[in-house]
Design goal:
Blueprint lengths: L9 H16 L6 H8 L3 H7 L3 H14 L2 H9 L6 H13 L3 H10 L1 H10 L5 H19 L9 H16 L9 H12 L5
Helix pairs in contact: 1-2, 4-8, 4-9, 5-9, 6-9, 6-11, 9-10, 10-11
Protein name: AcrR family transcriptional regulator
Keywords: DNA-binding, Transcription, Transcription regulation
GO molecular function: DNA-binding transcription factor activity; transcription cis-regulatory region binding
Length: 195
């Protein structure tokens, strides 16, 4: 791209390019050159908008974590409808069919990225922590509606559901799990909390 040509929504264009590279080629292929090539812009564009590549990646991760709000709202709205296991299965499948499953190894892979994220996100992995909060809010609503037992330990159930489901989806190069596998996992985890 010639110098001096304005690019609209540079951050979003670069974030979308990073997501495509990450999903297609994995975390080890995510470099500043790969991102700018995918975005169709000069490498200097990234460095004009971000301090360095780890700064770019930290903002990318936080941006993607922030995009979970509509999914969290939809799941909360589903409380009291369908089945608890069905609603959880849909939400967890949507979550791990997304870029979230690829971001987790990226964060684990890059020490400086983890350090940057700790400045604004003191514990946990941002996408997984947001997902646990989303699941926790939903389970709390279902408990209030009497669709979970009054003693259902939502604070333990939410991260357990996230961890178990992430394990099912963790191999990004393999075949995603069948819905029945996710349903069986969810049911095994919540079985004792159903009235």
């Amino acid at each position: 791209m010639p110098t001096g040509v304005a690019i609209r929504d540079v951050r979003e264009q670069l974030f979308d390019a990073a997501e495509r590279v990450l999903l297609r080629d994995g975390p080890s292929a995510l470099t500043s050159r790969a991102v700018t090539t995918e975005a169709g812009c000069a490498k200097g564009v990234l460095h004009r908008h971000f301090d360095d590549f780890d700064g770019f990646l930290a903002e990318f991760v936080l941006d993607r974590a922030g995009r979970m709000a509509p999914q969290a709202f939809a799941l909360l709205e589903a409380a009291g409808t369908g089945t608890v296991a069905g609603n959880l299965t849909d939400a967890l499948t949507d979550l791990f069919d997304s870029v979230a499953v690829a971001i987790v190894p990226l964060i684990i892979f890059r020490d400086e990225l983890r350090a940057r994220l700790r400045r604004t996100w003191p514990s946990g992995i941002p996408l997984l922590a947001e997902a646990a909060a989303m699941i926790g809010s939903y389970l709390t609503a279902e408990r209030a509606l009497g669709r979970l037992t009054p003693d259902a330990d939502v604070e333990t159930l939410a991260p357990t559901l996230i961890g178990a489901t992430h394990h099912l989806f963790a191999d990004r190069t393999g075949t995603p799990p069948q819905r029945e596998t996710v349903v069986r996992t969810v049911n095994a985890i919540i079985a004792k909390t159903l009235p």
